[in-house]
Amino acid sequence: MAPASAPLVHLGDGLNVSPLGFGGMALTPVYGEVDQGEALRTLHHAVDAGVSFIDTADIYGGGSNEELIAQLLKERRGEVQLATKFGLVGTPASGYTDIRGDAAYIRQAVEASLRRLGTDTIDLYYMHRRDLRVPIVETVEAMAALVQQGKVRHLGLSEVTAEELREASSIHPIAAVQSEWSIWSRDVERNVVPAAAALGVGFVPYSPLGRGFLTGTVDASKLGSGDFRRNIPRFAADAADANQGVVAAVQAVAGELTVAGTPATPAQVALAWLLAQGKRLGLPVVPIPGTRKAERIDENLGSLALDFTAAQLEMLDAAADAVVGSRSADPTWVSQGRE
After folding, report:
1. CA neighbours closer than 13 Å in the CB half-sphere of residue 250
2. DSSP characters for 133-185?
3. Contact 93, 228 (CB under 8 A)
4. Out of 60, 105, 126, 206, which one is annotated catalytic?
5. pLDDT tens across 193-208, in order?
6. Cα–Cα–Cα angle for 48, 292, 26, rounded to 5 degrees
7. Regarding predicted confidence, which is higher, 5 or 155?
8. Staple 324 to which of 149, 212, 218, 239, CB 3.0 to 4.6 Å?
9. Coil, helix or strand for 120?
10. CA–CA separation, 20 and 291 (whole Å)
């Protein structure tokens, strides 16, 4: 496990966060039922271990995820860099009914999030998805007004294209872009990542473990009826079978490495690959793996101690090129489908 004193990472616009974050969506019933007591203990353990960058959204659990994190913030607000998001209407479990990026909705959404979180200020406020009916400059202008009012410290964008990022940055500094990025989801490297690097914007990869697939512990054929991964093309039976190749490569590299004298795990390799990729591509990268179990926090932090040989990186890169299936049921929902 990394020490709690691990150096902070500088994203954009002066925002400093822990080198790994925590993705709160895992603590809602999207992968099955959640024990709220265990969820809160996991959050506390994360902060104890040095993972102080906590990421949530207003739609996770219909707002219940923000309310859960509020219980952590009651005692430890000063230890946490808090991120949340607006823009999606609905929930991950039941589905989404709309995307809103208009100023009136943003004002309504931030007040609701502040109330649920029990705080006066959000450290990083993301546009969760792009509302194509509203020019992005108008959305960012409304977000920038929240900074002026002291309700938000920094602005972020999720699943934007390179051009959308450039437009947004012309209105207000953007601290971070959040998009899916991992060994098996590398489309953002074509345009979005280079734009972020050029603009001085940090990158926050969500689903850095491939929604669990890269750990080798997910059997796509046995996902529950309420598991939203059943709707993702690369989890379909034929694609999931083909994608075992990338899992095998991650496992093979893990078998060659150790962390503090113990064998490395596939999760550690997947996270360390993202950190190495950020260095290769010239921008700060802070993955936000989510988990329900405290011991997984410690495992994930072990990734900070891993280094790869050139041959190991080549093996992982080659496996990524053979991935089958889109990362989203609707490619226009993410930057990949609009670039």
Report:
1. 29
2. TS-HHHHHHHHHHHHHTTSEEEEEEES--HHHHHHHHTTS---EEEEE-BTTB
3. yes
4. 60
5. 999 999 999 999 999 9
6. 110
7. 155
8. 239
9. coil
10. 13
Whether the predicted model's global pTM rises above the 0.85 cut: yes
What is the maximum span of the chain, computed from C-alpha positions, in angstroms? 54
Buried residues in 163-172 as b, exposed as e (16+ CB within 10 A): ebbbbbbebb
In which band, very low, low, confident or very high, does the pLDDT at 1 lie, cut at 50, 70 and 90? very low
Radius of gyration of the chain (CA): 19
Overall average pLDDT of the 222-247 stretch: 80
Note the pLDDT tens digit of each residue in 121-177.
999 999 999 999 999 999 999 999 999 999 999 999 999 999 999 999 999 999 999
Tokens of 5: 């004193």
- Look up 60 and say whether it is catalytic: yes
How far the first Cα of the chain sits from its last, in Å, is: 38
What's the whole-number average pLDDT of the chain?
91
**Whole-number Å distance between alpha carbons of 294 and 299:** 9
Task: Tell me how long the chain is.
Answer: 339
Q: Which amino acid is at 267?
A: A
Could you tell me which of 266, 212, 213 has the C-alpha nearest to residue 240? 213
Using the Cα atoms of residue 87, residue 80, residue 46 and residue 204 in order, give the sign of their dihedral.
positive
Which residues lie closer than 8 Å to 28 by C-beta, 6 or more apart?
Answer: 34, 60, 61, 64, 65, 91, 92, 93
